[in-house]
Amino acid sequence: MIYIKKKGMSTLISTVLLVSFAVILGIVIIGWGNRLIQSNIDKGEERIGTDLECLNVNVKITPTSDLDDFKVFVQNNNMKEQEIKGFISRFGIGNKIYVDYKNEGTIIESFGVAVLEYDTAEDRNGVPVGGYDNPSELETIEVIPRVVLDNEGVVDCEKKSAKFIL
After folding, report:
1. How, if at all, do strands 87-93 and 96-100 pair?
2. Half-sphere exposure of 28 (CA within 13 A, CB side)
3. pLDDT digit string (tens) for the chain, length 166 residues
4. What is the number of other CB atoms lying within 10 angstroms of the CB of residue 149?
């Protein structure tokens, strides 16, 4: 009879261990799932915020026809008095695309106009990049507007870019 009691105790201990292991495993999975869901919610809120900020952005590109004094104008046609905090330019020549970050700090008020500087591009580090100083070689001009978020961050409104084909 002593052995029967030991076998019963062994079964009871193993049951308690299995139940406690299952409870601990459940707590770990719930904690991991909560962190995963919360990070996805935060990313979604940020994405919705940037899409809402860019909702009213409307830019227009107007180049002059005179190649001797060629200028490209960027017009801010925002209806909600939202200013554009600069823009990124893309210039297409043949099979090359030049990305210019020189105009990132150019502020364009609502219904305002700025002249796009295209004669010498600068990359993100401010290093001059040549190659499209001749306006007759330009095939496409694209402008990606940038706006300031409520939390003072700046977002590029890629979906609201304006493209002009010469």
Report:
1. antiparallel
2. 6
3. 455 555 556 778 888 899 999 999 999 999 999 888 888 887 766 666 667 777 878 888 888 777 667 778 888 887 677 778 888 888 887 777 778 777 777 888 888 888 877 666 655 566 666 555 566 777 888 888 888 777 677 888 888 888 888 7
4. 15
Per-residue confidence (pLDDT) for residue 129, from 0 to 100? 62
pTM of the model: 0.63
Q: Kindly indicate whether the domain formed by 57-165 is annotated with CATH number 2.60.40.
A: yes
Residue 80 CB contacts under 8 Å (≥ 6 apart), including other chains: 56, 110
The CA-atom distances, in angstroms, between 36 and each of 24, 25, 28, 40, 125 are 19, 17, 12, 6, 35
Cβ atoms 159, 144 nearer than 8 A:
no
Domains of the chain, residue spans: 1-54, 57-165
Q: With beta carbons less than 8 A apart as the criterion, state whether 118 and 89 touch.
A: yes
CA distance 33 to 29: 6
Distance CA 101, CA 154 (A): 14
